[in-house]
Amino acid sequence: MTFVCWQSLNDNDWARAPLEAAIPLLPEPPAQPSPGAPGPFAFANKDYVATMLKEAGWKGISIQPWLGRITIPGDTVAEAASFMVELGPTARLVAEAGIDLSHVEDLLANRLAAHIDKDGRVTMPAAAWIASATAP
Question: Per residue in 78-90, pLDDT tens?
């Protein structure tokens, strides 16, 4: 078996950027999720992943880092910002606080401008684990 899972939120600018753009507009910062809590970063801790696989009976466990860049959907910075604020917890936090999503998009677009590639697309650092194991 082989699978890929995200490393921590702090290691994934693409996921952290929309939250950081929204936080100044929120009445209070969002609570940090508990380690291993359901969500895209549930397997951020490679030791947790290794232990889970071992306890499930898998053998030959290997967890290797992958560091690279991902291209954010959208042909422009504005389109990328619009996509990103609707992905993950940012949209929910902003809606609950009654904040106009366009304010977050504007703040995020300013940050994304530093990540434009030669084709005009937004690419951002990403970090994942490539985990593999053999059946018991």
Answer: 999 999 998 777 8
